[in-house]
Automatic annotation (TrEMBL):
Domain Alpha-L-rhamnosidase C-terminal span(s) in chain numbering: 567-637
SUPFAM superfamilies for the chain: Six-hairpin glycosidases
InterPro entries per UniProt: 6-hairpin_glycosidase_sf (IPR008928), 6hp_glycosidase-like_sf (IPR012341), Bac_rhamnosid6H (IPR035396), Bac_rhamnosid_C (IPR035398)
Gene3D superfamilies: 1.50.10.10, Maltose phosphorylase, domain 3
Entry keywords, A to Z: Signal
Region forming the signal peptide: 1-18
A GO term, aspect molecular function: catalytic activity
Membrane-traversing stretches: none
Organism classification: Eukaryota, Fungi, Dikarya, Ascomycota, Pezizomycotina
Domain Alpha-L-rhamnosidase six-hairpin glycosidase per the UniProt entry, residue ranges: 235-465
Protein name: Uncharacterized protein
GO biological process, one term: carbohydrate metabolic process
Length: 680
């Protein structure tokens, strides 16, 4: 019999008991939330690394009863499903007592509709994962713990199946999960950011995104094994260096994918607030740079190659990491590799058209890629623009100018060859007039490639792809991609259409969060336009259950709600400069905050006087400076604005293509009242 592993070690920290970090992992995470408050009730993270099931589901109708610590398996009860109530991941252990020989099978699934005697698919091959087996050879008691390499990264349901030639009765008790994600944190609930609004659904979605990103932050040596295991699974692959790293999904692929990080990193920063895993993920991509300067599409042990877009996402991810963390040592260490990577991809720009000609055609899931693909050109523009910023940080102003000039030339080429003025959106390719993709058009607005008029036109065109449960992607027909939709919601906010952005968040992410077969706690990789969980089934995925139900690339609403509803965004290293530009939509109030090395950033606003006024409070570190663009009140061109007791009259201005009352706010704590001027 195998002894029950140590599931939790407790130590007295600051007067309260805290759970230890993952096994031998050093504890480097925060001990307490940066912003404790009532909103903590939305936080899905467990309070302990030892988590037990919440309910027992009966077979058939899958009705539930409260889990009281034990279940009985017998010839009359051959299967029991344990529901943890939310997405969990890690090592399962249990105790048992049996009056004879029996075999107990263990299977794990994320979605209720795949519950059964076999686990959902995760190994990446064409064969099923199957189940693990506990062989009880004689009467008595014992314990069982899942081997480390069989760690299950993401699931909600554990199915126990029974067989016995002797008719034995088995009592299974003390079923526990040792949580394996966020391995350097002793307190999994110690978020460094928060969000709350007048809409309960949005609050839950924000925290579902944050929790998803926690489940995607994993111990270094728990990646999916390559070569892929057949008829089982193995999560013992080495993903990089350090103690923690951010990957694409909890259940699978459990590898670094830089494209996914384009959404995951901003959302992780503004919510959970942990950047060590981001640095390790980026570093491993540079460590495996190819001789020609290209970067892998995915990190080790997979090391998939030949993606121009994911190559560039690593470079954009470098900008995001340096912006949020001000880690100039990381930038200096990798600068030569960064420059080589820029030259590699820019060498594919066609001299005649000035557009990138894509040859590394692997991408997020879209059906077509190559030639002068518009999505790839939007990403190249962002790469050059952010590269110019980073070059200044390392003191190379001349190179910064070169990147700026290249970006300007590419901007002209994009709008010359890819914009369809008669339709009001970007084509998928310079020669393709049939497809107007969701990804390129959303990214064009997000990356500031467009005019205000183009933003409004694109926003209107994108809505034409919607159905009742989300935005159907033209470049992946029949599918809804929360990854690309994460960029779309940002584009609607940036076009000044907050109601449209909030509508899409509710109809897509809200639909999944409330789905009876979902995890009720995380964000899904993707789904079909008819609402079935069969993302990319028959287009590379071996089974419908292979879909990840905790995928960080879908966590876009988390950063978008902080940046555009609360209105706070970092614009300079670690928040030395920031912006405050809230958008109310149909909400009555909102508040939120996040933390950088400089300190805490927090803002709250509320509408009053039947919409004729609103107030906000803002607190940012001393020595920082913010640019504010405040919403118009009652449509007025002018407003009376009282800042810390001093009143002035402000007129509407256009800043960053949006209208509002513009002012500068210095670091510190401020109270502001914006009022309609009666008679104007």
């Amino acid at each position: 019999m195998k002894s029950l592993g140590l599931l939790a070690v407790f130590s007295l920290v600051g007067g309260s008991w805290a759970v230890s970090c993952w096994r031998e992992t050093p504890c480097t995470g925060p001990l307490e939330p940066a912003f404790p408050g009532d909103w903590d009730s939305y936080n899905y993270a467990p309070s302990s690394r030892s988590v037990k099931p919440k309910t027992v589901l009966s077979s058939g109708a899958l009705s539930s009863t409260v889990y009281d610590g034990s279940v009985v398996l017998s010839a009359g009860i051959p299967r029991v499903v344990l529901d943890f109530g939310l997405e969990v991941g890690g090592i399962t252990s249990l105790r048992y007592t049996s009056d004879g020989a029996a075999v107990i099978g263990l299977a794990w699934t994320e979605a209720k509709n795949w519950v059964g005697s076999d686990s959902d698919y995760s190994n990446g091959g064409s064969t099923p994962d199957g189940h693990l087996t506990l062989n009880i050879t004689e009467p008595g008691s014992g314990t069982y713990e899942v081997p480390l390499e069989k760690l299950r990264g993401g699931f909600r349901y554990l199915t126990l199946s029974y067989s016995s030639s002797t008719g034995a009765v088995v009592n299974v008790s003390d079923v526990l999960i040792e949580i394996g994600f966020q391995p350097t944190w002793s307190n999994l609930r110690a978020y460094q950011g928060y969000f709350r609004s007048s809409d309960e659904t949005l609050n839950k979605i924000w925290y579902a995104g944050a929790y998803t990103l926690q489940t995607n932050t994993v111990p270094i040596k728990t990646g999916r094994a390559i070569p892929m295991v057949r008829n089982s699974w193995s999560n013992n692959g080495t993903l990089g260096n350090g103690s923690t790293i951010i990957v694409d999904g909890a259940k699978r692929d459990r590898a670094v994918w830089p494209g996914d990080m384009g959404v995951a990193v901003p959302s992780a920063f503004y919510s959970v607030g942990e950047l060590e895993s981001v640095a390790n993920a980026l570093q491993v991509m540079y460590d495996y740079q190819n001789g020609d300067g290209s970067l892998p599409e995915a990190g080790p042990p997979l090391l998939q190659q030949d993606s121009d877009t994911y190559h560039m996402w690593t470079l954009i991810g470098t900008y995001n990491y340096v912006l949020y963390g001000n880690d100039t040592n990381f930038l200096a260490h990798n600068w030569d590799r960064y420059r080589r990577a820029i030259e590699y991809v820019y060498g594919k720009v066609d001299e005649k058209s000035g557009l990138l000609s894509v040859t590394g055609t692997r991408d997020w899931a879209r059906w077509g890629q190559g030639s002068n693909n518009s999505e790839a050109n939007m990403i190249l523009y962002r790469t050059l623009a952010t590269g110019s910023y980073l070059a200044v940080l390392v003191g190379d102003n001349a190179l910064s100018g070169i990147y700026t000039d290249r970006a300007a030339a590419l901007l002209t080429a994009i709008n010359t060859y890819l914009w369809d003025s008669s339709y009001g959106a970007f084509r998928d390719n310079a020669t393709d007039v049939r497809l107007y993709p969701q990804d390129a058009n959303s990214l064009a607005v997000v990356f500031n490639i467009t005019s205000a008029e183009q933003d409004r036109s694109i926003s209107s065109r994108l809505v034409e792809n919607w159905n009742d449960i989300g935005a159907v992607s033209p470049e992946l027909p029949g599918h809804i991609s929360p990854f690309i939709s994460s960029f779309e919601i940002q584009s609607h906010f940036l076009a000044g259409n907050a109601p449209r952005a909030l509508d899409l968040i509710r109809r897509s992410w809200g639909w999944y969060l409330n789905h009876p077969n979902g995890t009720g706690s995380t964000v899904i990789e993707g789904y079909l336009e008819d609402g079935s969980f069969a993302y990319r089934f028959n287009r590379g995925y071996p089974h419908a259950s292979y879909t990840s139900h905790a995928h960080g690339w879908s966590a876009g609403p988390t950063s978008a709600l902080t940046n555009h509803v609360v209105g706070l965004t970092v614009t300079g290293p670690a928040g030395q400069t920031w912006s405050f530009a809230p958008q109310f939509g149909d909400l009555e109030f909102a508040e939120g905050g996040f933390t950088t090395a400089l300190g805490k950033f927090q803002a709250s606003w509320a509408i009053g006087n039947a919409g004729k006024s609103y107030s906000f409070n803002i607190a940012t570190p001393a020595g920082t400076e913010g640019s504010a663009l405040l919403p118009r009140v009652s449509g007025s061109r002018e407003a009376k604005i009282t800042i810390d007791g001093e009143t002035g009259i402000y007129e509407v201005r256009t800043v960053n293509k949006l209208e509002g009352y513009a002012l500068t706010i210095h670091g510190g704590t401020h109270s502001v009242l914006v009022q309609e001027i009666v008679g104007t």
